[in-house]
Amino acid sequence: MAAAMMSVRGLSRDFRGFRAVDRVDLDIARDSVHALVGPNGAGKTTLFNLLTGFLTPTAGRVELDGRDITGLPPERIAGLGVARSFQITSLFPQLSAVEQVELALQGHSGRGMAFWRSRRTMRRYREPAMRVLEQVGLEDVAAVPGQELAYGRKRALELALALALHPRVLLLDEPTAGMGLEDIDRTVELIERVRRDRTVVMVEHNMSVVGRLADRVTVLTAGRVLVEGGYDEVRADPRVIDAYLGTGHAAR
Amino acid sequence: MRKSLRFLPLAAGLVVVAVLPRVLYPPVALDIVCWALFAVAVDLLLGYTGLLSFGHAAFWGTSAYTAGLVAEHTGAPFPLAVLAGAAAAAVLAVPVGYLSVRRTGIYFAMVTLAFAQLMYVVANQWRGLTGGENGLQDVPRTLFGTHPFGTDLSDPYYFYYWMLPLALLGFLAAWRIVHSPFGRVLVAIRDNPARARALGYPVHRYKLVAFVLSAALAGLAGGLFAMSHQFVTLDTLHWTTSGQAVVMVVLGGIGTLWGAPVAAAILVRLQDILSLAHFEEVGLLTGGVFVVVVLLFRRGIWGTVAALLRRWRIG
Fold this sequence. Notes:
A: alpha/beta, Rossmann fold, six-stranded mixed beta sheet, four-stranded antiparallel beta sheet, 25% strand, B: globular, ABC_transp_permease (chain B), branched-chain amino acid transmembrane transporter activity (chain B), Branched-chain amino acid ABC transporter permease (chain B), membrane (chain B)
């Protein structure tokens, strides 16, 4: 597939003899939303960590836009335009929301090394940081420290930090985990908006969210690709129903 | 109100360092300033980068020996000798840091301790250069001769005011580093290294730069210490020297920048009083104080006082 933004070949990862990801082949089409689904322990988050350099594969290869990125450290992969969010909210507790986005915007400039300059020079990022916060609806809590934000807001900030990198590929690990219906709707709308000119890969358990967003769905079980296809196709597949969704889900 | 209060510690600190050798025995005042700067260097790593170095004596001692040797063999004015010492400490910190910043927690502490012990053994064996157990004796102290502007440089009282600008430059550097974009990235790395990497920050490189900067400041302090005493002993490389600096940081309040100098002043003065009273077990007492503070005031002296002030201002 020539148009693949990210492609994975024969990717495996062992943890002390346990194979968490097993010879996975995957092509993520450019400007698509690609969902990874599967039961707990299927290897989705491990696969995410392999794609973003937080883990190195035991075997196999990861390509970004035709370039081999296997084994590169996370900060290099981030620098190539791959941003990720974390399943467990992962913020900086003491920094305010806007300061965290400033930090994200500064990431690739190399200005973070300036130990001789005043911190006030980071104000150059204040305006663009506020625009990112507006995008996710957090402009009213810009000055609130990360640890004091409500759960839904933390998840939104999580997304904002990834968006601030202006990534070509956005990897979202369960963006709606633990959210109420209202927050889920807002997040889906937000992803709809930010997916333009961008490739999105998401791990998601909520099948209605997957149905609304995903162009393509890959089902993983026990570290392997079970089925891949369009949402309706995958949902109707008897193997998927058997392994993951259960009969009750198909009937609904 | 808050803005003006922010400069209160700075103003108070400047007054204290200005009068210190008038209210205390000048050699004690010199020790306080040197140890305070050393402790601030350790706080830069422990408080703002989350790395507990148990081997900073390597940088303090290496700089002390370098400054002493430069002054002895070249007759260079003391600020140049001290800066040469700080530079030597920074150079040493590059390989030591490179090999240790990939470790965290107790492993980082152990690796840095191992390097410091190595430096101790080297200094002990290389008698021709370091004087071994005798150390370096009679290190000359000059600046435009021995009597700049009619002041006697061999008098600790006058020397204090000549070395103070260099020390203040060190404190200023530490303050600047903490309040720079770099300092903000360090705190981010300390609190959430995975997230910092995902934002594109090469975490190990940042830690290495922090390590080298901290070593340079520890070196600056060590060089000034050598010039203050006009001799250098193996004690400067001993592991208890590293430990003392860590104790000062914990006692003063980790990550407060102001706490370490306060604790340094208290501990150095306490040791002075105890030695005058011929009390030999100084370690026993400082250890006891340390245990009490860690158990009762986790935020250290500065953290506890700051919290009390905040409560008092709100209440």
